[in-house]
Amino acid sequence: METATAYEFEVRARTIGQGYQARSFRLLGSDVTLSRRRFTQTLSLNIWDLSGRRRDRMLHDLTPLSGPDLYVSLYLRIEHDFGSWSTGSLVIDNRVFDAVDLIPELERGLVALDILYGYAAAEGLAGGWLDLYAGRLLDSDSLDWFDMDGVKARFHTPIGVSLAGFAGLRVRDSSPLASPTFEPDGTGSAECAEYVEGQNPGSGSWRPIDRQRPGDNRLFENDFDRCPQRDQIMPTFGGSVETRGFDWLWARLSYRRSMSPTPGLIGPVDRFEVADTGLYPDEVDQAPDWGVNEEFATASVRSNHRAFAGGGQITPHGAVRYNLLLGLIDQAHVGVRMRYRQSTIEPEIYYSFPSFDGDSILNVFSSQPYVDARITYDQALRDVPLSGYVRPWLRRFGVARDQRGGPGDSDNLAGGIHIGARYRRHGLLSAQVDLFHDSGYGGRRTGGYADAYWQTTRDTGVRVRFSTIYLDADLSQTLHPSSRKTTFAGQAGVTYRVAEGVVFHLVAEQNVSRLSPSQFRLLGVVDLAFVPEV
User: Fold this and answer.
1) Extended beta strands in 25-127, E state
2) Which residues contact 176 (CB under 8 A, 6 or more apart)?
3) Smallest Cα–Cα separation from 237: which of 191, 278, 199, 294?
4) Which end of the chain has the smaller Cβ count within 10 Å, N or C?
5) What is the C-alpha separation between 233 and 229, in angstroms, rounded?
6) In whole angstroms, what is the distance from residue 483 CA to residue 442 CA?
7) What whole-number distance in Å separates Cα of residue 494 and Cα of residue 523?
8) Contact of 247 with 304, CB cutoff 8 Å
9) How far apart are CA 195 and CA 272, in angstroms?
């Protein structure tokens, strides 16, 4: 008898094409409509069992062999926008500029090749006590997530605790094959400034970095925008302690710190009237060689307890993050989920204080926290595939009184209620309705969504979706007079399975409002998935 050995792998590719028009508002002159033509290609690759733990195993014997488990996981994305929105040009002072040169944000979607994550893993080393990961790692915590190019090790102790440590370079927009999605909070704005020294120390001023230098006339890249601080490497390291193997308790403590070097001179010393000392103020050597971008300590806990007769359960959970850079708690979340048969109720409180990367200019502005309290009740019927929920909520914004023009705190409150129902039957027919009403600080918003899917044949499905939203912003008198508006939207799509692992989706969407009488979008998706047969 001959045997064959091989590893397992999975490949999935998705091709997305979009065509739509976006309206551009101008203070002077008539508004214009710009076309967007977007192409997105994603590819995911997973290769399992590189160590052969399941090789030579029969179909009925799935017990893995001893030894480590080796695998590779990769997710790649290609994007290109070739519509007039991105590839157009602007005329300023009789000079013609590419749109991407004057609007740096367009560069991110014009042409991009991104590796969202891609790493090799070895789990179960050293007799099952050690796991190793290397590559572009996407890691998450209860209140946070980040991406880095580096290594991570996790050690499983015999007392039900796992110890993990990691080190590498934080992924930024300027990192190789990186997405701007991973740029730390507050560092994604277009304009960058430099400090121009004055005659006396401390008398200088912040100015946009000189953009009048000749560009290279690159069609798909910005020729003028310069942000030296964002091009610096950002070493990142940290670790965590986490419980494992307990059905009734999960807890985690984690720490992370990111730093970056301070840029020095970005041009000749004598390019200004006073000798330049660097990107940041450094007349008396006050600029540090390195600065802290982020430093967090996070604690999370979740506990499961049986309750009531008949299989009820109570699950309290909570998480808190302390920002060591700011010296305060910037995020916290606490709640308890109580389930009894087909009924679930979950009260929650969430606290957030806006915080940004240490290099962000947003840190110089006054920030105020907000507190969000909500309670969700879910009910599923026993004999009918129908369920529903109701979620009232209340939010208080910590707005300074002088910003509101009065001493009252009630203006800082907002609240509302969300109600919905869902119907699903054997995957062939589903429908969902969601209604909401929000009012208070920030204005009033009322509307709803309705969605239905019908599997008409084995290979064909149809989906329709409708929504309407009425918005009344409390700043409507100082904004556009049409800020009080009602928006209607409708979508219709069809899904067709061409063959096993090959699916085509086509979606058409129409939006109507007072600001935009017509916004039409056409979206096509080709989804390819291949998993080898066992």
Assistant:
1) 32-48, 69-81, 89-92, 95-98, 111-124
2) none
3) 294
4) N
5) 9
6) 12
7) 11
8) yes
9) 11
Per-residue pLDDT reduced to its tens digit, 267-323: 888 888 888 888 888 888 888 889 899 999 999 999 998 887 767 899 999 999 999
Alpha helices in 133-229 (DSSP H): none
Phi, psi of 478 (to 5 degrees): -100, -5
Q: How far is CA 139 from the centre of its chain?
A: 13
Three-state secondary structure call for residue 87: helix
Residues with Cβ within 8 Å of 486's Cβ and at least 6 positions away in sequence, in order, are 468, 469, 470, 471, 513, 514
Q: What is the pLDDT of residues 495-534, one digit of tens each?
A: 999 988 899 999 999 988 877 777 888 899 999 887 665 4
Q: Of 80, 74, 43, whose CA–CA distance to 137 is shortest?
A: 74
Question: ∠ at Cα 37 (31, 42), nearest 5°?
Answer: 140
Q: Provide the H-helix boundaries in 113-227.
A: 125-128
CB count in 10 Å sphere of residue 30? 5
- Return the SS3 of 204: coil
Instruction: Please state the pTM of the whole predicted model.
Output: 0.84
Lookup result for tokens 């551009």: 24
Instruction: Specify the pLDDT at position 404.
Output: 42
Residue 253 is classified by DSSP as E
Q: How far is CA 28 from CA 5, 31, 76, 163, in A?
A: 70, 9, 42, 61
Q: How far apart are CA 182 and CA 179, in angstroms?
A: 6
376: its two tokens: 């969700």
Helix (H, G, I), strand (E, B) or coil at 227: coil
β 312-323/205-208 pair status: unpaired
Name residue 37's amino acid: R
Alpha-carbon distances, residue 412 vs 38, 73, 353, 374, 526 (angstroms): 40, 46, 15, 17, 47
β-partners of residue 250 are: 302
Separation between Cα atoms, residue 272 and residue 233, nearest integer Å: 28
Separation of CA 186 from chain center = 14
Which pLDDT score, from 0 to 100, does residue 403 have? Answer: 43
H helices, E strands: number in the chain: 5, 27
Closest CA to 462 of 423, 426, 430: 430
